[in-house]
Amino acid sequence: MSIRSKLKDEKLGQLEKFIRETPVEIELVDRVMYKYQHDSKSLISHRKKPRKAVMVTAMAAMMVCLLVIAPFISPTMAATIKQVPVLSSIFALAGDLGLKMADEKGLSTKPNTSVTHDGFTLNVSEVAYDGTRVSIGIERSQMDSEAESLMDRLANIELFINDKPINEFAPSESNHIGVFIHPGKDKDSAIIEFADKNNQGGLPFPEQFELTIYATITGIKEPLKIGVPVKNKIADSVTLQPNISRQYNNIQFTVEQIKVTPITTNITTRTILTDNSTFNETIWIDVFDEHGHKLTSLTGEGWHETNGSEQIMDQRFTPFESVPTSITIKPYIHLFKEYPKGEYQVDENNEPIIQYIPELEMTIPIK
């Protein structure tokens, strides 16, 4: 047996002995309830008395031990360890393919900056920016873990780019930049996300900037302020301006721009009601590659003037696994209930029912 093999066996044996002799409490109830609450559309709420985390010292020691023997761990074992939530990044486990790829391909940054106020610690652990979409992974200290999720405790978020409010980059006061909050890898994490509206007449974000976050947490009087460096690390992207239109009845639908990055697929569309009528519903799109694989929708923002007959939309989707030869865009509308007004019709899985408009469908080659 080689010296390296012997050392490897000894280290792994030490690790096994250490883990077996270390008492660790595993709490699965909160994780399962959190996943159920966020994955389903149920209105069931779950509250219980806060519980303090235990055995933190043991877990920390285990992590140090893993780092010490890292050079001797096989790729299979390393991949398995990375699946453990406490060792994995928010982006790797959040369910967003683009952010997962950003983490795996080194397209994100990990500033690990934090701020503490009234005993509550907020940490920015990961950042991704592809020139349009900005995603910020935030976590609260495990010592602050409680039944109420971090998303529930986020009462308000204010963002500044190089000390300017992000809405200074918006096209107008009536067309502001939306801030989205998505679930993270567990109840102690979340993802803050926003995108520029350059395609709607706003200003593009700088390629590199200092983002300042003011996070208002319920139960804490003063907002937590934290500065985060943001940099576009995407070197390869595809931008097309097809300006292809379809007409159906009084609807003129145009795909103005397609931007494909390793993190996001962003599609800008413009809809005009040719009879000068007023919009009473939004036309959304589904996107498919040449093999019929449908992209997962992420976020979308649209705007039209009050009583206006023209609407512009930016809709963002997960990335293609590889740049396709063509994409098919299928516009659709949501079907609404007669009563109460404004509510979607839903299917047996509680998903909104949609209706495609085949006359507006188009297939666009990607060069």
Summed up:
This protein is α+β, with helices and mostly antiparallel strands.
Describe this structure in words.
Helices cover 18% and strands 35% of the residues. The strands form four sheets. Strands 1, 2, 3, 4, 7 and 8 form a six-stranded antiparallel sheet that branches. Strands 11, 12, 13, 14, 16 and 17 form a six-stranded antiparallel sheet that branches. Strands 6-5-9-10 form a four-stranded antiparallel sheet. The protein has helices at residues 3-21, 29-39, 56-68, 75-82, 90-93, 97-104, 150-153; strands at residues 108-109, 113-117, 120-129, 133-140, 154-161, 164-165, 180-183, 189-195, 208-217, 224-231, 238-240, 244-248, 251-260, 265-273, 284-289, 297-303, 310-317, 326-334, 354-356, 362-365. It starts with a helix and ends with a strand. The protein is globular and about 60 Å long. With 367 residues, it is α+β, with helices and mostly antiparallel strands. Residues 1-8, 19-73 and 75-86 have low confidence and may be disordered. It has three domains: 1-87, no CATH class; 90-233, Immunoglobulin-like, CATH 2.60.40; 238-365, Immunoglobulin-like (Sandwich).
**CATH architecture identity of the largest domain:** Sandwich
List the total number of helices: 7
Instruction: Kindly provide the name of the CATH class of the largest domain.
Output: Mainly Beta
What is the CATH T-level topology of the largest domain? Answer: Immunoglobulin-like
What's the count of strands?
Answer: 20
Overall mean pLDDT score?
81
The Cα radius of gyration reads 24 Å
- Give the ordered list of helices and strands: HHHHHHEEEEHEEEEEEEEEEEEEEEE
Low confidence ranges: 1-8, 19-73, 75-86
Classify the beta-strand content into a percent band.
Answer: 25-35%
How many separate structural domains?
3
Structural class category? alpha+beta
Tell the overall outline.
Answer: globular
What is the terminal separation in angstroms?
56 Å
Proportion of residues in helical segments: 10-25%
